[in-house]
Amino acid sequence: MPSTTFASRLLVVAILAAVGCSSANDGPQRYRIQGEITYDGKPLPGGRISFAPDTELGNSGPEGYADIIDGYYDTNNGGKGVVPGAHNVRIEGYDGEPSPRNDFYRYGNMVFRVHRDKIEVPEKASSKNFDVPDPPNEE
Questions:
Q1: Residue 36 and residue 72 in contact, taking contact as beta carbons nearer than 8 Å
Q2: Is 96 in contact with 108 (CB distance < 8 Å)?
Q3: What is the mean pLDDT of each run of 10 residues along the chain (139 residues)?
Q4: Where is the secretion signal located (predicted)?
Protein backbone atom coordinates (compact mmCIF):
# COMPACT_ATOMS: atom_id res chain seq x y z
CA MET A 1 0.00 0.00 0.00
CA PRO A 2 2.79 2.53 0.68
CA SER A 3 3.98 2.20 -2.93
CA THR A 4 0.47 3.11 -4.17
CA THR A 5 0.56 6.27 -2.02
CA PHE A 6 3.99 7.15 -3.40
CA ALA A 7 2.77 6.53 -6.96
CA SER A 8 -0.31 8.68 -6.33
CA ARG A 9 1.80 11.53 -4.99
CA LEU A 10 4.15 11.23 -7.95
CA LEU A 11 1.21 11.40 -10.34
CA VAL A 12 -0.17 14.51 -8.60
CA VAL A 13 3.25 16.21 -8.81
CA ALA A 14 3.54 15.34 -12.51
CA ILE A 15 0.07 16.75 -13.24
CA LEU A 16 0.76 19.94 -11.31
CA ALA A 17 4.07 20.38 -13.13
CA ALA A 18 2.37 19.94 -16.50
CA VAL A 19 -0.40 22.38 -15.61
CA GLY A 20 2.13 24.90 -14.28
CA CYS A 21 4.16 24.94 -17.50
CA SER A 22 3.49 27.95 -19.64
CA SER A 23 2.17 27.66 -23.16
CA ALA A 24 2.54 29.87 -26.21
CA ASN A 25 -0.84 31.45 -25.39
CA ASP A 26 0.17 32.69 -21.94
CA GLY A 27 0.86 36.37 -21.36
CA PRO A 28 0.00 39.44 -23.41
CA GLN A 29 -0.59 39.28 -27.15
CA ARG A 30 2.66 39.77 -29.10
CA TYR A 31 2.89 40.86 -32.72
CA ARG A 32 5.42 40.21 -35.43
CA ILE A 33 7.62 43.13 -36.43
CA GLN A 34 10.18 42.97 -39.21
CA GLY A 35 12.15 45.33 -41.38
CA GLU A 36 15.47 46.52 -42.72
CA ILE A 37 18.32 48.18 -40.86
CA THR A 38 20.95 50.24 -42.62
CA TYR A 39 24.14 51.88 -41.34
CA ASP A 40 26.28 54.22 -43.39
CA GLY A 41 23.83 53.73 -46.28
CA LYS A 42 24.33 49.94 -46.43
CA PRO A 43 22.52 46.97 -44.86
CA LEU A 44 23.85 46.30 -41.36
CA PRO A 45 25.64 42.90 -41.67
CA GLY A 46 24.76 41.58 -38.23
CA GLY A 47 23.47 42.44 -34.80
CA ARG A 48 20.52 42.39 -32.49
CA ILE A 49 17.46 44.58 -32.11
CA SER A 50 15.32 44.70 -28.98
CA PHE A 51 12.02 46.38 -28.19
CA ALA A 52 11.41 47.30 -24.55
CA PRO A 53 7.98 48.65 -23.62
CA ASP A 54 8.32 52.33 -22.64
CA THR A 55 7.16 52.32 -19.02
CA GLU A 56 7.45 56.13 -18.81
CA LEU A 57 4.65 56.30 -21.38
CA GLY A 58 2.55 53.67 -19.57
CA ASN A 59 3.42 50.63 -21.66
CA SER A 60 4.32 47.31 -20.05
CA GLY A 61 4.94 43.72 -20.97
CA PRO A 62 7.78 41.48 -22.06
CA GLU A 63 10.62 42.66 -24.26
CA GLY A 64 10.70 41.60 -27.91
CA TYR A 65 13.85 40.96 -29.92
CA ALA A 66 15.33 39.63 -33.16
CA ASP A 67 18.70 38.95 -34.74
CA ILE A 68 19.83 41.21 -37.57
CA ILE A 69 21.21 39.28 -40.53
CA ASP A 70 22.30 41.03 -43.73
CA GLY A 71 20.33 44.14 -42.83
CA TYR A 72 17.08 42.35 -42.06
CA TYR A 73 15.30 41.41 -38.83
CA ASP A 74 12.11 39.49 -38.12
CA THR A 75 10.77 38.62 -34.68
CA ASN A 76 9.22 35.45 -36.17
CA ASN A 77 12.67 34.07 -37.07
CA GLY A 78 14.04 32.94 -33.72
CA GLY A 79 13.08 36.13 -31.89
CA LYS A 80 10.17 37.19 -29.75
CA GLY A 81 7.21 39.27 -30.88
CA VAL A 82 6.39 42.69 -29.51
CA VAL A 83 3.49 43.90 -27.39
CA PRO A 84 1.66 46.93 -28.85
CA GLY A 85 2.33 50.48 -27.67
CA ALA A 86 5.33 52.76 -27.13
CA HIS A 87 8.77 51.09 -27.16
CA ASN A 88 12.39 51.94 -26.62
CA VAL A 89 14.42 50.32 -29.39
CA ARG A 90 18.01 49.20 -28.93
CA ILE A 91 20.14 48.20 -31.94
CA GLU A 92 23.60 46.62 -31.62
CA GLY A 93 25.61 46.68 -34.86
CA TYR A 94 28.34 44.28 -36.02
CA ASP A 95 30.29 43.71 -39.25
CA GLY A 96 29.39 40.03 -39.60
CA GLU A 97 33.07 39.04 -39.96
CA PRO A 98 34.56 36.61 -37.44
CA SER A 99 37.96 37.51 -36.04
CA PRO A 100 40.47 35.74 -33.78
CA ARG A 101 39.56 38.19 -31.05
CA ASN A 102 35.85 37.67 -31.49
CA ASP A 103 35.36 34.33 -33.28
CA PHE A 104 32.96 33.01 -30.63
CA TYR A 105 30.48 35.79 -31.34
CA ARG A 106 28.30 35.06 -34.34
CA TYR A 107 27.74 38.70 -35.30
CA GLY A 108 31.42 39.58 -35.79
CA ASN A 109 33.16 42.77 -34.68
CA MET A 110 31.33 45.74 -33.24
CA VAL A 111 30.61 48.51 -35.76
CA PHE A 112 28.84 50.71 -33.23
CA ARG A 113 28.02 50.11 -29.60
CA VAL A 114 24.30 50.79 -29.34
CA HIS A 115 21.80 52.91 -31.25
CA ARG A 116 18.61 53.94 -29.49
CA ASP A 117 15.29 54.92 -30.99
CA LYS A 118 11.60 55.10 -30.03
CA ILE A 119 8.63 53.68 -31.92
CA GLU A 120 4.93 52.99 -31.52
CA VAL A 121 3.95 49.37 -32.28
CA PRO A 122 0.39 48.81 -33.60
CA GLU A 123 -1.93 45.96 -32.57
CA LYS A 124 -1.05 43.97 -35.69
CA ALA A 125 1.96 42.58 -37.53
CA SER A 126 4.00 45.44 -38.93
CA SER A 127 7.22 46.57 -40.61
CA LYS A 128 9.63 49.19 -39.37
CA ASN A 129 12.89 50.13 -41.07
CA PHE A 130 15.74 51.82 -39.21
CA ASP A 131 18.54 53.93 -40.67
CA VAL A 132 21.24 54.17 -38.01
CA PRO A 133 23.03 57.53 -38.33
CA ASP A 134 26.80 57.92 -38.24
CA PRO A 135 27.55 58.43 -35.42
CA PRO A 136 24.65 56.48 -33.90
CA ASN A 137 22.62 57.66 -30.92
CA GLU A 138 24.74 55.61 -28.52
CA GLU A 139 24.37 54.90 -24.84
A1: yes
A2: yes
A3: 54 47 65 96 94 96 94 92 97 84 69 93 96 79
A4: 1-24
